[in-house]
Amino acid sequence: MEHIYFFYGDQKKISWIIENSQSRSEESRTHAEYFYDIVTQEQSKYIALHVGIFWGIGRFIIKNGDVVNVMLDQKSMFDRLAENKVTEDVFIERRIKFIDQIIKQRDLDVRYQLVDPSKNKATKLLLS
Hints:
The protein is α/β, with parallel strands linked by helices. The protein has four helices and five strands; from the N terminus they run E-E-E-H-E-H-H-E-H. Strands 3-2-1-4-5 form a five-stranded mixed sheet. The longest helix is centred in the middle third of the chain and has 18 residues.
């Protein structure tokens, strides 16, 4: 199955939306205490990417071998994930290691796409 995955994060919360031809699932959460008001917005987005994919697998929305179209609303994330440009941020690099591990374990076909921030549906979950 093919999914479209939107995600967002700020210093207090994370959110994500997983859409496919059969369903739409959305979730938002307050950061764990050790991340709350400590991580940068970009670091928070990586947390949202990681947690949301893991959640989607756990809820049996995303299954082994599925295609996941990840919508990135930040150029630096696109550069790092789609073009493998390494960042100096150790936190982000560690999070990417976990994300890559999930992708490999579940044999996911992940496709990264850069979208305008105004098109990120997950942003609206934190603003409401």
